[in-house]
Amino acid sequence: MALSVYSWKRYWGSRTARLDLSDSGYLSDPETDALVAPMGLGVQVNRNSRPSVHWVSTSLLSSLTTMLLEDLAKGTALRCPCGQLFVSNAYQARYHSKQCRWRFEKHKQRHPDED
Ligand SMILES: [Zn+2]
Q: Is residue 52 part of a domain?
């Protein structure tokens, strides 16, 4: 039997800890959860005395992480083949920079048999 080694990121917890499967039956990412933990909802009353709900935070990092998660959910946050995350409204966007596009297109040109 061949031994397979996967480069998956692993998280450890105690055997008595309760597993949180509230993310559609999947384990939630503890690092992302820790980043967005300071986020909360707040109510703001506008000029017309109408209340509206807004995200509030005491941490810029948690605000940026929440914005990225919203962009991922909307599909405007993309992952370049190099692994870099970027945000674009262009439907044809695939690369995070011109240099990256040139690099991967040159690679595809030199190795047309690869996917
Ligand atoms: Zn890239």
A: yes
